[in-house]
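User: Here's a structure from my thesis project, written as structure tokens. My advisor, Dr. K., wants to see whether a designed sequence matches the one we expressed. Can you design one independently, without my sequence as a hint?
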């Protein structure tokens, strides 16, 4: 037998390691393509702004401030600063962005989503320029977003049919560990405390029997609060004060002042000086200006004897919330729907969007900090050289962002609707039911985004939407798909005639 005949009759050889890897890449080619694009954008971002971007609030995290910010993000800075300075911090945050995309894709595949749907869910966190800009900025938002993603993945991962630990101990451990991770996010940004609501609801809706469900809900709540209480105890031991952090003087004043109809508000004369006119509100820049601008009535109004300024602002805010709750709710709703606008443009009523956009030059804030101050701060944290914006990378990123390189608002709306529809969908089977997972992610998105908007709308505070809403939407699409398949199978199995 010739060599050719032997090769023709020989059994097919199993593909080697390289062949198997290539088949895997081909099978997930769309996701690999989008992931590669996200990686390239991150390399450009790291190259364009050296060593990292600094914002006004970056100072309190770099210099340390127990009173005004939780310490979770500062722990990451202390870990990375001595090794590679601010450039390493930014690089790690970019890795977090890539990791979140991979986690979302893997989770959705595990839950039965088609590959196109899983790729679509991962695309916003990979390609959104506002996400890229904050990954390059020394701010806690990306770490906060990553911890939320990690907690949800832990909670939703055991979705396939498979072995279970006797007595259901493994699922209970999953609920506890997922809740623990989400609770730890509060030590990075205190607004994360609202996530206890979807966590407890999720635990209460899973498992047989109401008693077992209540036990799981209690376990989830306890695990969520464990890192919070531990942090509070540590803060009390160090500072003598039992609290997470302060958001500045009376943060609720800004929303109350922006929403109040002062002509009909029944308040003492001393509080009336806190009422801005509509023209003042516009000139100050809405809620943000009312809170922080020195020309705001909240800063200039005289304080009567026997009160502190914070107490005066709190009384005004409480009177507004009690007497005009519908006006306050309408004000929050107007800000909340900004996320769904087709185009992102500047609005004088909210925090300037330019703060979260790439610039052709290295951005500075001369009214607060000079370039020299930022440079000294960067040098103090292990970064040599000047703070620079490198061309043409910086201009390319700016053109990409302003030219539509972000998740469109209507797409966010579609994701939200799909998530709600999936949560309301009829049951599709004990092991494949996605209603509760849809509810968990959709409720997490709603409570977190709306709670942030209740204090102050900022495009920075909308960042978790790039993870939560696409995940909720594609879980909803998968739920609809599974329900449709089950319906078709039932119709085929039904006897004819």
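Assistant: Designed independently from the structure alone:
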């Amino acid at each position: 037998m010739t060599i050719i005949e032997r090769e023709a009759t020989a059994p097919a050889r199993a593909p080697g390691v390289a062949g198997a890897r290539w088949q895997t890449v081909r099978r997930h080619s769309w996701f690999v393509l989008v992931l590669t694009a996200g990686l390239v954008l991150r390399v450009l971002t790291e190259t364009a702004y050296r060593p990292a971007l600094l914002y006004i609030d970056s100072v309190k995290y770099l210099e340390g401030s127990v009173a005004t910010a939780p310490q979770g993000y500062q722990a990451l800075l202390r870990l990375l600063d001595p090794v590679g300075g601010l450039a390493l911090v930014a690089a790690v945050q970019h890795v977090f962005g890539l990791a979140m995309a991979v986690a979302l894709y893997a989770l959705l595949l595990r839950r039965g989503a088609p590959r196109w749907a899983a790729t679509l869910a991962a695309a916003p966190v990979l390609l959104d320029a506002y996400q890229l800009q904050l990954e390059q900025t020394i701010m806690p938002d990306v770490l906060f977003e990553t911890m939320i993603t990690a907690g949800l993945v832990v909670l939703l991962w055991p979705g396939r049919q498979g072995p279970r630990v006797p007595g259901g101990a493994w699922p209970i451990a999953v609920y506890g560990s997922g809740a623990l991770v989400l609770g730890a996010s509060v030590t990075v940004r205190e607004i994360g405390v609202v996530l206890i609501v979807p966590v407890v609801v999720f635990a209460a809706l899973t498992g047989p029997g109401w008693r077992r469900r209540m036990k799981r809900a209690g376990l989830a709540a306890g695990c969520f609060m464990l890192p919070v209480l531990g942090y509070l105890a540590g803060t009390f031991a160090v500072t003598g004060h039992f609290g997470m952090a302060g958001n500045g003087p009376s943060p609720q004043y800004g929303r109350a002042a922006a929403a109040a109809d002062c002509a009909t508000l029944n308040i003492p004369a001393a509080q009336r000086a806190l009422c801005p006119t509509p023209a003042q509100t516009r000139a100050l820049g809405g809620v943000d200006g009312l809170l922080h601008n020195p020309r705001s009535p909240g800063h200039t109004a005289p304080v009567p004897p026997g009160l502190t300024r914070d107490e005066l602002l709190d009384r005004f805010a409480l009177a507004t919330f009690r007497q005009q709750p519908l006006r306050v709710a309408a004000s929050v709703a107007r800000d909340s729907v900004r996320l769904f606008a087709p185009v992102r443009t500047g609005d004088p009523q909210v925090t300037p969007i330019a703060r979260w956009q790439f610039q052709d030059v290295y951005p500075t804030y001369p009214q607060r900090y000079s370039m020299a101050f930022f440079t000294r701060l960067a040098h103090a944290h292990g970064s040599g050289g000047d703070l620079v914006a490198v061309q043409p990378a910086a201009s390319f990123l700016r053109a990409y962002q302003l030219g539509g390189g972000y998740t469109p608002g209507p797409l966010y709306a579609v994701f939200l609707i799909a998530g709600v529809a999936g949560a309301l969908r009829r049951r599709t089977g004990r092991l494949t039911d996605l209603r509760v997972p849809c509810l968990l992610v959709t409720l997490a998105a709603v409570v977190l985004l709306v709670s942030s908007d209740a204090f102050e709308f900022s495009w920075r505070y909308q960042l978790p939407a790039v993870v939560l809403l696409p995940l909720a939407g594609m879980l909803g699409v998968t739920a609809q798909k599974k329900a449709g398949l089950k319906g078709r199978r039932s119709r085929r199995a039904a006897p004819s005639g």
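When you compare it with your expressed construct, this may help: The beta strands are 49-50, 388-389.
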